[in-house]
Design brief:
mainly beta; globular
Length: 119
């Protein structure tokens, strides 16, 4: 069993930065691929970025490449999402998720944290 708790969302101006954190509980944390997904009103859920246990494999959606950075600290059971150069279209609820097989149906979800980018 893994429980995920996000923090760090908020309101930021265009071009600003935010850092999201996802604290995981559960002994199996290191066996999961961790990711950040987001969903804006009226839009489909999008996988923003994901990282394997070792950090050797990282995925970024084209829309965030060069602006967002995912990292994980397995010793602290925490995943981070550094978001720079934020745009209004980054406004969404951001969810931390854990999966072993894929993102169509992650094994575990966090409660979500709102990120709002104002222009």
């Amino acid at each position: 069993q893994v429980q995920l708790v996000e923090s760090g969302g908020g309101l930021v101006q265009v071009g600003g930065s935010l850092r999201l954190s996802c604290a995981a509980s559960g002994r199996a944390f290191s066996t999961y691929i961790m990711g950040w997904l987001r969903q804006a009103p009226g839009k489909e859920r999008e996988v923003v970025t994901a990282i394997t246990w070792s950090g050797a494999s990282i995925y970024y959606a084209d829309s965030v490449k060069g602006r967002f950075t995912i990292s994980r600290d397995n010793a602290k059971n925490t995943v981070y999402l550094q978001m720079n150069s934020l745009k209004p279209e980054d406004t969404a609820v951001y969810y931390c998720a854990a999966t072993r097989l894929g993102w169509s149906n992650p094994d575990y979800w966090g409660q979500g944290t709102q990120v709002t980018v104002s222009s």
